[in-house]
Design goal:
- Helices cover about 50% and strands about 10% of the residues.
- With about 475 residues, the chain is an alpha/beta fold.
- The chain has two domains: about 45-135, uronate isomerase, domain 2, chain A, CATH 1.10.2020.10; about 135-465, Metal-dependent hydrolases (TIM Barrel, Alpha-Beta Barrel).
- α17 (about 350-360) links the parallel β8 (about 340-345) and β9 (about 370).
- α1 packs across α19 (about 415-430), α11 packs across α12 and α17 (about 350-360) runs parallel beside α18.
C-alpha cells in the first residue's frame, strides 16, 4: 500500500497524484452525528472510534466465530480490539483489510500490519494519539480535507446542532441535514400514528387528512431548506409504485392514523402518493432526491429482537423494480416536477438497468438523474469498477457526482482516496489502451469534476453560506 497503491499505469498515477489526491471532499451522504461534531466528542480508545457502530466489521467478526459480547456486547474495549486483530489477517480479499490499513496509515501513521502479534503496540500508539487535539471530530474532518458533509435526519429533528455549527465561526465546514422521511412513509408500521402526532405538534397543525399531512411535511421541508438541506433520502426495499385515487389514499391514511391494519397493497399505494407529493416539493426547492433501492433488512429475527436494526443483519434483495422506477420518475416528469435524482442499487445485477433508466429523464441540468456510486455491499474495488464502467458504457461518466462514505465513522474518509485511486486507474487504462486521447486538459477537468466539482454544482453548495 505504497503511494501507487491500486495504480497500474503511468497515466493512472499522473491522474491520481496530480489531479485527484489533493481535491477536497464533499461527503454528501453519511450517518455522522451533528451533535458529536458540535460537541467535538473525544474518543477514549481505538475501539470507540474504529469498531463501534461499524456493522461491516461486525459481520466478519461473526463470520470468524467471535462471540457477540466481543462485538456489540459489554466486553472490555481492549478485548474487542484484540478480537478484531485476530480476525483481520484472515480477511483476504475483503475490502475491510484495505480500508483498515488505510485508516491506520492515514490517520495514525501506523504502517505495521495489524495481527495478534502487533496488536498491543498498535493499541498503545493509537490510543496515545487519540488524546491529542488532532483526533477530535472537527480536526479529523479538517485533516481529511472535507469541505462539507450531509447527515441523515428525521423530519421531526429540530436540527439544533446543525444550526449551532453554522453559527460557529471556528468551524467553516458545511454540516448540512438530509431529509429522510421514513416515519412519514411507513404507514404499515406501529409507530406511524405517533409519528404523525409529533409532526402535528412541531408544525402546529391538526393533521386529520392526507392533504394536511402533506402540508405539514412541506412545513418541515421549508425548515430543512433554511437550515441548508438540499437533499432527501429514501430507502425503497420492496415494490414501491401503485396508483390510487385521491379518496382511496385519504381512506388509507385515515386507517393508518387510527392504527388499523394496513395491507401491503395499501401501503404501496400510500407510499406512491406520498413520494409523488414529496418529489414535487423537492423539485420546487431545487433539491436532489436520493433513492436507495434493494436492501433486505433485519433478516435475523432473533438478533433483531436482541440488538435492533442496523447491526449487521441486512443483505441484498432481489425484487424486480424497473417498471416501478420508470413509473415513479415518469409520474413526476410528466408535469415538470421531477427533481434531480440519485439512484443507488444494492443488487449489482441491476446496474445496467439503472444506468440505462437514468438516460430516459435527463433534461436541462447536467447529470440531472444520476446512477449513484457503488453502495454498501458494492463499495469495494470490484463493485466500484463495475459501477464506473457501466455508467461510462451507457451514460456520461464525466457528469458523475462521485463518492460518499455512507458511514458512521470519522475514519471512513479514506474511502474517498480508495475510490479516487480506482477511478484514476480505470481512466488511465483507457488512455494507455488508446480508448481516449492523452489530452490532459479534459482528463484533469473530468477527474477533478468527479472528485468534487460535480457534486458542488449539483447541489448548489456555492450558494449555501
Amino acid at each position: 500500500m505504497d503511494e501507487n497503491y491500486l495504480l497500474n499505469s503511468q497515466t493512472g498515477k499522473k491522474l491520481y497524484h496530480e489531479y485527484a489526491s489533493g481535491m477536497p471532499i464533499f461527503d454528501y451522504h453519511c450517518h455522522l452525528s451533528a451533535k458529536e461534531i458540535f460537541e467535538n466528542r473525544r474518543f477514549k480508545n481505538l475501539t470507540e472510534i474504529w469498531l463501534a457502530e461499524d456493522h461491516y466489521k461486525w459481520r466478519i467478526l461473526r463470520a470468524n466465530g467471535v462471540e457477540e459480547s466481543f462485538i456489540t456486547g459489554d466486553s472490555d474495549d481492549k478485548e474487542k480490539f484484540l478480537k478484531w486483530a485476530e480476525t483481520l489477517p484472515l480477511a483476504l480479499g475483503n475490502p475491510l483489510y484495505s480500508w483498515s490499513h488505510l485508516e491506520l496509515q492515514r490517520f495514525f501513521g501506523i504502517k505495521e500490519i495489524l495481527t495478534p502479534e502487533t496488536a498491543e503496540t498498535i493499541w498503545e500508539k493509537a490510543n496515545g494519539l487519540l488524546q491529542q487535539n488532532d483526533f477530535s471530530p472537527r480536526n479529523l474532518i479538517f485533516r481529511s480535507n472535507v469541505k462539507g458533509l450531509c447527515t441523515t435526519d428525521d423530519p421531526l429533528d429540530n436540527l439544533e446542532y446543525h444550526m449551532r455549527l453554522r453559527e460557529d465561526s471556528d468551524f467553516d465546514v458545511k454540516v448540512l441535514p438530509t431529509f429522510r422521511p421514513d416515519g412519514a412513509l411507513n404507514i404499515d408500521q406501529a409507530t406511524f400514528a405517533e409519528w404523525v402526532s409529533k409532526l402535528g405538534e412541531i408544525t402546529n397543525r391538526d393533521i386529520a387528512s392526507f392533504k394536511e399531512f402533506v402540508q405539514a411535511l412541506n412545513d418541515r421541508i421549508d425548515f430543512f431548506h433554511i437550515c441548508g438541506c438540499r437533499l432527501s433520502d429514501h430507502g425503497l426495499d420492496n415494490p414501491f409504485y401503485m396508483e390510487a385515487a385521491e379518496d382511496e389514499v385519504e381512506l388509507i391514511f385515515a386507517r393508518g392514523l387510527s392504527s388499523q391494519s394496513i395491507s401491503s397493497e395499501e401501503a404501496i399505494k400510500f407510499k406512491t402518493a406520498l413520494m409523488k407529493e414529496l418529489g414535487k416539493s423537492y423539485s420546487k426547492n431545487g433539491w436532489a432526491m436520493q433513492l436507495h433501492i434493494g436492501a433486505l433488512r433485519n433478516n435475523n429475527s432473533r438478533k433483531y429482537k436482541e440488538l435492533g436494526p442496523n447491526t449487521g443483519f441486512d443483505s441484498i434483495n432481489d425484487f424486480n423494480y424497473a417498471n416501478d422506477l420508470a413509473k415513479l420518475l415518469d409520474s413526476l416528469d410528466i408535469n415538470g416536477d421531477l427533481p434531480k435524482t440519485v439512484i443507488y442499487c444494492l443488487n449489482p445485477r441491476d446496474n445496467y438497468m439503472v444506468a440505462s433508466m437514468i438516460g430516459n429523464f435527463q433534461e436541462n441540468v447536467p447529470g440531472k438523474i444520476q446512477f449513484g456510486t457503488a453502495w454498501w455491499f458494492n463499495d469495494q474495488k470490484d463493485g466500484m469498477e463495475d459501477q464506473i464502467r457501466v455508467l461510462a458504457n451507457v451514460g456520461l461518466l464525466s457528469r458523475f457526482v462521485g463518492m460518499l462514505t455512507d458511514s458512521r465513522s470519522l475514519l471512513s474518509y479514506t474511502r474517498h482516496e480508495y475510490f479516487r485511486r480506482i477511478l484514476c486507474n480505470i481512466v488511465g487504462g483507457w488512455v494507455e489502451n488508446g480508448e481516449y486521447p492523452e489530452d490532459y486538459r479534459y482528463l484533469e477537468k473530468i477527474i477533478k469534476d468527479i472528485c468534487y466539482f460535480n457534486i458542488e454544482g449539483y447541489l448548489g453548495l456555492q450558494d449555501i453560506s
